[in-house]
Each structure stands twice: as structure tokens, then as C-alpha cells.
Amino acid sequence: MASTPFDLKGKRVYVAGHRGMVGSALVRRLASEGVELLTVPRAEMDLRNQAAVFDWFAKNRPQAVFFAAAKVGGIVANNTLRAEFIYDNLVQATTVIHAAHMSGAEKLMFLGSSCIYPKLAPQPLREDSMLTGPLEITNEPYAIAKIAGIKMAEAYRSQYGSDFISVMPTNLYGPGDNYHPEYSHVVAALIRRFHEAKVTGAANVVVWGTGTPRREFLYVDDLADACVHLMKTYSSDELVNIGTGEDISIAEFARVVADAVGYTGTISYDHSKPDGTPRKLLDVSRLAQLGWRASTSLKDGIRRAYQAYLREHMQAAE
Ligand SMILES: NC(=O)c1ccc[n+]([C@@H]2O[C@H](COP(=O)([O-])OP(=O)(O)OC[C@H]3O[C@@H](n4cnc5c(N)ncnc54)[C@H](OP(=O)(O)O)[C@@H]3O)[C@@H](O)[C@H]2O)c1
After folding, report:
1. Which of 21, 150, 239 to mutate for ligand 1's pocket (most ligand atoms within 8 Å of CB)?
2. What is the pTM of this model?
3. Residues 184-213: pLDDT tens digits?
4. Can you list the residues of the chain whose pLDDT is less than 70?
């Protein structure tokens, strides 16, 4: 078991999924922690390949692991690629967590997600609501794999005394997001659609649903900061929610995105499309007690996310 507080300075720290939205934010955040950063491109080590992963961990012996790799996507991807979502995420979880244990990693952080709480759990969502009811059917394969990862971290802590912790981030946005037209999350989808409408001079943008559901959004660099804070100061088998603790209606949020993008046309709502759950908000009181609060306002975060989108978009076009 690692000591608490756990000093990252000088440690070999592996970020799994370092090219992803969360992983790249962790890499940015860790730059000021004086760590020896370890990363491996997927082409060299597919995290589903148990032999390759065991071998790499045995050779490199990371002392701390941020497990930010996963097959991730919006509702369409989760619901249509159901086999891939359960297989990829289950195998990665079992492989990486076991490799960390075998190679003697002192600490590991597993990233769960707010979307794996039961569909009808009371809002705001508390950590102890996990596994208290049926899951949202559209992302059940992903949720089952993620819950297995959390339960593995818990089991390794209880049987071997491993200092493995799990966190539950809310909806994230920021640099490195996935802007795929079908497979993206809501923030990236709105940034892309408002940007395209601005460029083409479209007079109206249609947003799915009624605009009334309320959601919580966290800037990914804030998430990385919270992860580093918890890695250094937290050691328990209890989950920790990571969010802002504030929600906003989709209609209000769409306006924030449109303003940040500079889209001046109208926004209408397609009531024939599903709204999903009326409210999704994390209870962040445990995180607040542990001494962390989000610092990036939604307006600032969306503005920075849009700047990143423009950079990434231009790079892709070159
Ligand atoms: N995005 C959100 O809103 C959100 C919310 C809550 C929780 N989370 C959690 O945060 C974590 C990271 O999510 P993200 O949004 O950063 O996702 P992302 O941008 O799609 O990044 C995922 C990363 O995992 C890597 N990866 C996936 N499959 C792999 C494999 N078989 N072998 C090696 N690497 C693999 C990807 O590699 P390539 O770059 O090669 O594709 C990528 O670097 C996930 O655990 C997710 O559940 C995300």
C-alpha cells in the first residue's frame, strides 16, 4: 500500500490512453509534478493484448498508473457497437489492473463514469448509488465493463492491499474531444454543428430533444487537476465523483456554445428525438470534503474548447 499523501515527484508515472481527451489533459497537468512520464502509443501496445501489456509493465515498472484508456463514445456508438464496448473495456480493465498488481505498482487510478450509475438513481447522484438498480440499456455493455474495473480495483485493494482507487467523472469536454458526426458526445456535437452553421451561414440549427433536460459539464483540464489531487491525497475503496456540482438545461447550454462559436442564427428543438433522463448531476460533496473544486467556468471552458476545436480542425484539414 502506498503512503498517503502519495508524492508523485520523481515517480515513474504511466498514463494509459495518453492521446485521448483525458489522457492528454493528464499529461499536460503532470508536466508540473516532476514525474518521469511513461506513455506508449496503441500501435506499440494494444491494451487488449495481455502478453504485450504484462511484458511492458514488467520491463517499465510504473509506480503510479492513471488508467485513462477506454473505448468511449456517445449514445449511438454505445448502442450500436455493443460487443466492442463490452469486450474492449472489459479486457483492458482486467489486463491493465492485473499487470499493475503483478509489476508492483504502488498506486493506480481507474476512471469510471457518471453514466454507469443506475438509470433511475436519485439526483444528484451519490457514490453509494452504484449497483442499486438497473442500468441505462443503451450503454449497459460499457457500464458493465466499467463496473467490473471498479470492482477489480476494490478486490485487489481488499485481497492484496493494493492502493487502487476509482473516480467517477461527469460529462467532459475540452481539447482532444471526439467530433465524429455520429459518435461524439453532446458538447463536441454542438461545437461542430454551430461552427458548421456559422461557416455556411445557416439561419437555424436543430438540436435534438426538447432542450429541457439538465446536464453537468466539466472542463477536462479541471478533471486532470482533480485526478492528480486525488492520486496524491486519497486512498480508499470508496468511489469519488468528479464534477462541478452544477447543471444547466440543454437549451441554455446550446446558447453558451452558440455564443462562444459566434453563431448568431436561431436554435430550434426536434421534439421527436429522445431527451434521455431529465436530469444528470453528480453529488460532489465527497470531493469538496477532500479539498477540490472545479475552477473553470462553463463560458471560459467552452471558449477554450472551441479554440482547441479550430486548431485540431485546421490540423486535420492540412
Ligand atoms: N469523455 C467523457 O465525457 C468522459 C466522461 C466520464 C468518464 N470518462 C472516462 O475517461 C476515460 C478517457 O476517456 P476519453 O474521453 O479521454 O476517451 P478518448 O478521448 O476516446 O481516449 C481514449 C484513449 O484510450 C486509448 N485506447 C482505447 N482503446 C485502446 C486499446 N485497445 N489499446 C490502447 N489504447 C486504447 C485511445 O487510444 P487511441 O488514441 O490510439 O485511439 C485513446 O488514447 C475513459 O475511461 C472514460 O470512461 C470520459
Report:
1. 21
2. 0.97
3. 788 999 999 999 999 999 999 999 999 999
4. 318
Q: What is the CATH number of domain 12-176+217-245+280-295?
A: 3.40.50.720
**208 CA to middle of ligand 1, Å?**
25
For the chain, the structural domain boundaries read: 12-176+217-245+280-295
Alpha carbons within 13 angstroms on the beta-carbon side of residue 25 total 24
Here the cell at position 269 is 428543438
Residue from 26, 29, 42 to probe ligand 1 pocket by mutation (most atoms less than 8 Å from CB)? 42
pLDDT at 173: 96
Q: Is 109 in the pocket of ligand 1 (CB under 6 A)?
A: no
Find out whether the beta carbon of 245 lies less than 6 Å from any atom of ligand 1: no
